[in-house]
Automatic annotation (TrEMBL):
This is Reductase. InterPro entries: FAD-oxidoreductase/Apoptosis, FAD/NAD-bd_sf, FAD/NAD-binding_dom, FAD/NAD-linked_Rdtase_dimer_sf, Reductase_C. Residues 322-401 form the Reductase C-terminal domain. Keywords: FAD, Flavoprotein, Oxidoreductase. Residues 5-303 form the FAD/NAD(P)-binding domain. It comes from Glutamicibacter nicotianae (Arthrobacter nicotianae). It comes from the Bacteria. Its cofactor is FAD.
Length: 403
């Protein structure tokens, strides 16, 4: 098994993590990494934060440099998309007409920014209208986020709100078109949503409850049309969600739902193929359900898990989802998996900007977040799944470790 030829399609974070863990665990056979982007695998969180602010450059968030891949004897096929998988021949076909044979295949094709699916947002392809998924996207957006530019952000999810914060920090005037009155309230609850809304308003972001309906070019500038009227913009970011890249999995005839369906060791319905990262709808043994998440931490951990599975080791997807965000002076980490119906409990003072947040289903903690309080996320992770009365959670007189 440790001499088999392993091919990984999609050269993002999950792929880089798989490669590293394979070599660490002693895989001695050939590894080929196929990626559509011409860059070495890199981390995407800085694209809406440090890189967009002008503080980080690509070398700061490239996972490994070219020498590392050479030393690990990894064959890189970058700048070439894989277009189909011939499972009978155990071959991946590339856009340049070549084919690569595999003994085991790992799909790590990630997500792409949505422009509206089958009904794309009218005007999404106009000059000055951006999405944000790749380094190339971030470079072209960064060049336009200049002092005084009027920036319209369509969508109030994590990426939209992070870019709104970054654009303000670069001196742009920013309007967010939020389809809900309170950003992110649908998933994280009103309390957190209001906190985020006020944070942005305090920093001068104009957050409008408005559903954007299209973008037009009028007299050399852009115009965002929404159900609350239209307004002018120099730059537009379409941040209306991401979609997993499932086409390749479909060509391989794999079971696909909202992601590629994999078991707790990341095997797909074809025993020679695994799926990792944003595309994997994996069975989480801790939560006892299929779960697909689009998080940095998940890409790293699932890469390591895929390597374990490929090496014949018995490990499983048994950890809780984790993610982080940075916006203005907000730094937040979240662990767990809450449902929109869960109640939320604040521990500490929201006004001070430093607090913990718990989500509960009855008394059972489903998720927790630390906002501007550091080094407690591991403790919060331990609390998820436990049953604790809300009054006790909110009581700062009781040490976190004594809950
Ligand atoms: C702007 C931005 C900010 C983010 N911020 C955070 C954050 O703060 N916290 C957090 O937890 N998560 C964040 N994320 C999410 C996180 O970056 C993703 O969950 C993570 O990148 C997923 O890794 P992946 O390897 O599965 O996919 P990706 O990183 O998307 O990599 C997939 C790669 O596969 C390539 N590919 C696709 N199809 C093919 C094909 N057919 N052939 C060859 N190559 C192909 C793609 O071009 C891409 O390079 C952010 C994402 C973005 C875009």
């Amino acid at each position: 098994m440790d001499q088999e030829s392993i091919v990984i399609v999609g050269a993002g974070l999950a792929a880089a993590s798989t490669v590293g863990a394979l070599r660490e665990r002693g895989h001695a056979g050939p590894i080929t990494l196929i990626g559509e982007e011409s860059h070495l695998p890199y981390e995407r969180p800085p694209l809406s934060k440090g890189f967009l602010q002008g503080n980080d450059e690509p070398e700061d968030f490239t996972v490994h440099d070219a020498q590392w891949y050479a030393a690990q004897e990894v064959t890189l096929r970058l700048g070439t998309a894989a277009i189909s998988v011939e499972t009978g021949k155990q071959q991946v076909l590339l856009a340049d007409g070549s084919a690569v044979d595999y003994d085991q295949l790992v799909l790590a094709t990630g997500s792409r920014a949505s422009v509206g699916g089958e009904n794309p947002m009218p005007g999404y392809d106009l000059p000055g209208v951006h999405v944000l998924r790749t380094l190339a996207d971030a470079k072209s957006l960064r060049a336009e986020l200049t002092e005084g530019a009027q920036v319209a952000v369509i969508g109030s999810g994590w990426i939209g709100m992070e870019v709104a914060a970054t654009a303000r920090q670069r001196g742009a005037r920013v309007t967010v078109y939020s389809p809900s009155e309170v950003p992110l309230a649908k998933v994280f609850g009103e309390r957190f949503g209001h906190y985020l809304l006020e944070l942005h308003q305090r920093h001068g972001v104009d957050v409008r409850t408005a559903r954007a309906q299209g973008i037009e070019q009028v007299d050399g500038h852009l115009q965002v049309l929404s159900d609350a009227g239209s307004s002018r913009a120099d730059v537009v970011l379409l941040a209306i969600g991401a979609r997993p890249n499932l086409q390749l999995a479909e060509t391989a005839g794999l079971d696909v739902d909202s992601g590629v369906i994999v078991d707790a060791s990341l095997r797909t319905s074809n025993s020679k193929i695994l799926a990792v990262g944003d595309i994997a709808q994996a069975f989480n043994t801790r939560l006892r359900r299929q779960l697909r998440v689009e998080h940095w931490d998940n890409a790293i951990r699932q890469g390591k898990l895929a390597a374990a599975t490929l090496m014949g080791e018995e490990e499983s997807y048994d950890w809780l989802p984790y993610f982080f965000t940075d916006q203005f002076d907000l730094g937040m980490e979240y662990v767990g998996h809450n449902s929109p119906d869960d109640t939320s409990v604040v521990r500490g003072s929201v006004e001070s900007g430093e607090f913990l947040l718990f989500w509960q289903d009855g008394q059972r903690i489903t998720a927790a977040a630390n906002v501007n309080i550091w080094d407690v996320n591991d403790q919060l992770r331990e609390l998820v799944g436990r049953e604790i009365p809300a009054e006790r959670l909110a009581d700062t007189g009781i040490e976190l470790g004594d809950l």
